[in-house]
């Protein structure tokens, strides 16, 4: 299957269409400024992967799509909140090809909107018409995921040089951060979906494993994108990481694989001072020369293989197939 | 009873001591930066009024103190989160006499810590050992309260001149904002406490009424404090509102009560340009001259009377008495 066909399979699936319909219906217009800004943050052209993973996990264990839909919207609220606040922290003025929330509405309203979206995560979750005990389990799962997400965001800031060992022993710290920052919400979405869908503990464990590997693959490939794509396609200034002097996955690999000259070059770039475009170009050369680009891609593809390896035993082959396609998508997209 | 004795009665009550012990035990030290910053935000010398109201409401309807303690901590998390994010928005570098969270740890970590505290609100709530249906009701109640709180924060920004009608018809808008910004969390804490304590719908309604009036009294009196106290006592730079050109309750009353000269003077101050100290002094003169200070105090006291009027029918007179003391405290404190 081509990459385009794969993206189409996922984002045009009946599940995705139902999620988009539910999101549009819930945020149909009117209301106060808080609603308007929330709508702007939510109804952007994203792929809705986390809600999709939640619904597919629920259906994979025999659950009902409509019954878990409020939870599917809920995980998108948390994701959107983290993007809104992340863009403030990183000073990113564009997101998916348009003004980020704080660039358009100001920092104050962006902070408050993110807060409101986090709160609505739990309000929406509590609307699911499934047994109370399952809803409460999902509340606990997503509270844990949200906490991990915050830990990952805070750790990310600590990985920037000259933090001790930011580059040298940075790969392990990086993978720990990625597991929290991206993996936790993927995992929370899949676990919550399986629990709300009435899955057995074994089934919940299988989708959790799937989600962790898929989350790692996504984060690894996200870090590769600035070295592969161009900003007109990714819709995000791909110098954000380098502007924030953040050593990402391929850069850390290049630092490990390279000789003294390559290491010094990376260290000089991440010490700051270069214009973002020049810094990215310099890193691209080192990442290519050391073979780190291919290596990073291979790592991400291995995570996808691991993600898909356990899905075969789930009751619904169709929903499990959709989960597999989401994992594939992690390493086959241009933004 | 003197004001000091009243404050002592509330903040040294066995309930308050138990809450402080539970909070200290939960945040005893160690952990990652996120835990350290959360501890800094939480273990400041506040009065813990919202947890106190939650526990007292639970006990007032016959509930168990220990069983609702995780929910009591939960409402303090939301309150602390709103202060951390509010201080960023208002640019306030001190809070309760020490550095605010963003002043000490930076804006990025302050945003993330506030997010984590909001998430923990729900995680902690889900720990209460009471029937699942009651925990879920409390989740819904506090999600609603949190959403209202955000609406109130956003509306507050809209009340600043030259927003249309910010001063002229501002009193109604102000009271609506205050009901959301302060009243919603007071109401949520009391409602959640009564529900988790196994109260009847009638009892839940009584504590909700109590909380709304008490919340209004608190907000009204908070607005009076800059005109009464001095910063060394309030522990907050009392020029925050005037620096942010925010027309507060006594100022709005003075605008309504005053003649054309007083109105023009208020409008000139709130148009900006004066140093904060001079602006506050000018507003103080108008607020005194128009009788708005006494009027604002009388309004706040009337809300306290209304708050206490329904408490007599609650099963536990002792817990109801503590709620009444909290309401009294609203208008008898120096910070």
Jot down its keywords.
2 strands, globular, metal ion binding (chains A, B), 17 helices, dimethylallyltranstransferase activity (chains A, B), transferase (chains A, B), mainly alpha, homodimer, Dimethylallyltranstransferase / geranyltranstransferase / geranylgeranyl pyrophosphate synthetase (chains A, B), 335 residues, geranylgeranyl diphosphate synthase activity (chains A, B), two-stranded antiparallel ribbon, Farnesyl Diphosphate Synthase, 1% strand
Structure description:
The structure is a homodimer of 335-residue chains. Chain A is an all-alpha fold and 335 residues long. Chain A has a single domain, classed as Orthogonal Bundle (Farnesyl Diphosphate Synthase). Chain A has 17 helices and two strands. Chain A has helices spanning 3-11, 14-26, 33-42, 49-60, 65-90, 101-105, 107-125, 132-158, 170-196, 201-228, 231-234, 240-243, 249-257, 260-270, 276-289, 292-309, 317-330; strands at residues 94-95, 98-99. Chain A has a two-stranded antiparallel ribbon with strand order 1-2. In chain A, strand 1 (94-95) and strand 2 form a beta hairpin. In chain A, helix 10 (201-228) runs antiparallel to helix 16 and helix 16 runs antiparallel to helix 17 (317-330). The longest helix of chain A has 28 residues, at 201-228. Chain A is globular and about 60 Å long. The model of chain A has no long low-confidence stretch (mean pLDDT 90). Chain A binds chain B through residues 32-34, 81-82, 85, 88-89, 107-109, 111-116, 118-120, 122-123, 125-126, 132-133, 135-136, 139-140, 143-144, 146-147, 150-151, 153-155, 157-158, and chain B through 32-34, 81-82, 85, 88-89, 107-109, 111-116, 118-120, 122-123, 125-126, 132-133, 135-136, 139-140, 143-144, 146-147, 150-151, 153-155, 157-158. Chains A, B: One of its GO terms (molecular function) is metal ion binding. Chains A, B: It comes from Saccharopolyspora erythraea (strain ATCC 11635 / DSM 40517 / JCM 4748 / NBRC 13426 / NCIMB 8594 / NRRL 2338). Chains A, B: Keywords: Magnesium, Metal-binding, Transferase. Chains A, B: This is Dimethylallyltranstransferase / geranyltranstransferase / geranylgeranyl pyrophosphate synthetase. Chains A, B: Its cofactor is Mg(2+).
